[in-house]
Fold:
Amino acid sequence: MVTIKRIILDVLKPHHPDCLEFACAIADKSPGIKVELTVDEIDEKTESIIIVIEGESLDYDAIVEVITDLGGSVHSLDEVEVTSKPD
Amino acid sequence: MVTIKRIILDVLKPHHPDCLEFACAIADKSPGIKVELTVDEIDEKTESIIIVIEGESLDYDAIVEVITDLGGSVHSLDEVEVTSKPD
Amino acid sequence: MVTIKRIILDVLKPHHPDCLEFACAIADKSPGIKVELTVDEIDEKTESIIIVIEGESLDYDAIVEVITDLGGSVHSLDEVEVTSKPD
Amino acid sequence: MVTIKRIILDVLKPHHPDCLEFACAIADKSPGIKVELTVDEIDEKTESIIIVIEGESLDYDAIVEVITDLGGSVHSLDEVEVTSKPD
Amino acid sequence: MVTIKRIILDVLKPHHPDCLEFACAIADKSPGIKVELTVDEIDEKTESIIIVIEGESLDYDAIVEVITDLGGSVHSLDEVEVTSKPD
Amino acid sequence: MVTIKRIILDVLKPHHPDCLEFACAIADKSPGIKVELTVDEIDEKTESIIIVIEGESLDYDAIVEVITDLGGSVHSLDEVEVTSKPD
Amino acid sequence: MVTIKRIILDVLKPHHPDCLEFACAIADKSPGIKVELTVDEIDEKTESIIIVIEGESLDYDAIVEVITDLGGSVHSLDEVEVTSKPD
Structure:
């Protein structure tokens, strides 16, 4: 079985909801994960944020759904780490 | 349950109260936290400071309230780390 | 006996399947490995990715086969670490 | 209770008393602390020094008093780390 | 007795055999060693590679022989670490 | 009680006695210390050296005396670390 | 008693004997030491090498003698670390 351990997302979002709400909403949907959100660039109406998410087994689709529901769009998946269980 | 473990704030403040009072006032409102305050830029009447706050479960609103009460304004929330409890 | 512990591949791939599918497909074929995929450059129709794969004993041919099956091509093998068992 | 764990001071001092005397005088007033003093810039009559002070519970006013008594002036408090005890 | 613990070789090789074969062939001749091979520069017919070899007691001549047998030439020995046993 | 744990000295010395003799002479006068001497700049008749001295309780005056006796002159005391014993 | 723990030598040597022979010859004369030799610059007839030697108690004169016997000349002693035994 393959599990996702870590992803780094480059996300474009409106100023509201703010970064804290974004991070909390993502964490809220997935038990046992860590979410680090860093602001990369602030424009007039939007901001680029980098989200690093780590956990024992991440649900990528659920994460993207939360981001989209909050008005954000995943610009790119910059990094992903997956592992496969030994036989 | 989602808890905030670490935030980095970019804050604009008047010269008084000084940085030490700022840091102590923030820590005073939240038991069991660590506050690191670094001066980023000093202007004639104001100074930009970076505040890194870490704890088991930070109360963001209480932190912002202390900063505002002391005459400071949160310019931006540069980084936030949250975790969700495993099921 | 010689075993491959770590390889770094520079791969050119179409945008689809996406990076997550790539990483998962590689891990899925090899039990007990870790796959880190980083996007290096994004062009109109393709993207360059760096794939770091670690495991107790990697099967290089199986890895290349997965990449090729998904439409990717190994541009170069940038790094390889192998060990030989003591006598 | 809030305690100060670490401060970094930017201090302007005359050449005499020298850096060693400065550091020792500060440490002498506060039991159980560590004082690291680095010379930043030397001018004709004065020198800028950076003083890093760490301890379990620093007394800021006592530290500033020692510096002033030796003819130095605190140019700025560049960094401060405080902690609050858990409830 | 003096033993070689680590060497770094700058090697020029044809594209074939590839890096993986090179690394495996070196490791295959020496039990209990680790071989890290990094590609430094790729030209039309040749490539420059850096080979880091570590082990309890490396046999330098055997290593060079393998490289030469595969069509490579040692351009330089960039680093070497040796130890002598205590009396 | 205040003790000196570490000092960094910028010293100007003639080429002879050489760096090794300098380091050994300093260490010889103070039991239980470590002396690291790095050459910073070599001129025709003199050389600038950086001396890092660490120990449980350094005797600064004794160190300077050794340096002066060997023909060196302390250009500056670049860093000093002192500690005070807890009550 | 003062002992030398570590020295860094800048040495000019002919191409032959090669670096490996140099390192081994130095280690061979001194039991229980580690010799790291890095090539810094290669000219037509000579090469500059940096030799880092570590041990419990290095014999500097013996090391220099080996280097000289092999046709090398110590260009400079770049760093030296010595310690003195506690009383």
Q: What stands out?
A: The helical segments of chain E are 19-29, 60-69. The two ends of chain E are 9 Å apart (CA to CA).
